[in-house]
Amino acid sequence: MSFDRTIKIAPSILSADFADFGREIRAVEDQGADWVHVDVMDGHFVPNITFGPPAVAAFRKHVTTVMDVHLMIAPVDPYIDAFARAGADIITAHVEAGPHIHRTLQAIRGAGVKAGVALNPGTPAEAVEHLLDLTDLICVMTVNPGFGGQKFIDMTAKVRRLRAMIGDRPVHIEIDGGVDPTTAPRLAEAGADVLVAGSAVFRGGSVSNSAPYGENIRAIRAAAEAALA
């Protein structure tokens, strides 16, 4: 995956029809999604349970873009190889999920996968300052992780601080939580380039009527890009 800092929209399949993931993934890609975001939750680090490596491997068969796997689990390290084998292009671990995030990022890269690090809303940007040369992506949570559809928490100042820290390094800033055409412009202007959106993408559509997915994706992208013009 070559580095490209244009705005990318990454629909979260947590908001898709769980009974029809294959067609849902193909539908959002056909409608313009740049990446597909997979939220993995363990009922321990966050108060919800979603997908394991076998499910992610099943999703991989349908993803033709980038499969962005966000591990909201603790511990992380024992599962890195399984999610890499499942076909993740990017594996993101939370800085709060364990005592040795440096080792975790090394292990992700050692598995042949791009390495991401996520920050909960209460965690400052400085927590990743010494990880930037091991990191391909920083995921800024703009909700408390665990459930889709939550109210947006404004992390614009954190995004701006991260972009300044990153400098000219090829590191994406991803936003996860509450992204829609209203919040996207301020995030893009601050320096974010990957926008994860769940309900804001899947709202109003279905696999048999996927045109609203495209309308929603285009609305978020247009709002973000307008802030950069």
Automatic annotation (TrEMBL):
Please give the InterPro entries that the UniProt record associates with this protein: Aldolase_TIM, Ribul_P_3_epim, Ribul_P_3_epim-like, RibuloseP-bd_barrel
Query: Native species of this protein?
Result: Paracoccus niistensis
Where does the sequence pass through the membrane?
A: none
Root EC class: isomerase
Q: What is its EC number?
A: 5.1.3.1
Which Gene Ontology MF annotations are present?
D-ribulose-phosphate 3-epimerase activity
Recorded protein name is Ribulose-phosphate 3-epimerase
Q: In which pathway does it act?
A: Carbohydrate degradation
